[in-house]
Specification:
The chain has 209 residues and is of the alpha/beta class. The chain has five helices and ten strands. Helix 3 links the parallel strand 3 and strand 4. It is globular and about 60 Å long.
Length: 209
Amino acid sequence: MVFVYNLYMRYYIADLHFYHINLLTKMDCRDFSSVEEMNDCIIEQWNKKIKKNDEVVILGDLSYGNGEQTNAILRQLNGRLFLIKGNHDDRFLKDKQFDSSRFIWIKDYAELNDNGRKVVLCHYPICCYNGQYRTDDKGNGKTYMLYGHVHNSRDQQLIEQFIHITRNTRINPNDDHDLRTIPCQMINCFCMFSNYQPLTLDEWIEQQI
């Protein structure tokens, strides 16, 4: 008998914002005295969990630093890295000193399979995402939309209201008098929600319960 072991895990995280000093006093009000302290803490939290062969999809706004500063951060992070571009990432991506080879790929948008579930990946929340209405035999949604960008802001509160309204809306998709609720499986992978550690899809789902 041959046993096949999963030698790696896939994780997701958003809005790390290395070197973004404004987030210490505005919006997030992160509890650090300097960006250097923040950077060191995030790297430590990351490497406590992520092993060499693990995959980590960063859902945008990795760094507010320049190319070489971001290179230095990436050299310290464990794992095989993938980047969904955020609105702040051009600061280092367009810097000629930046080494993009640390990433397996860099995309604006992606769709992946994660243990039989479809995952839609974008820095920005997509309220009507591809595959949203796909369900299993029990009517449970088979697609998850993972995003960042909004941090833990008013916009996130509005998205949570949208999710609640959508999940409580009943429709008749087959004209057979069988009313069903609409799946809406949007997850904000904001790094402060996970204490700056990437989480697996199952771990992010567990956090929503």
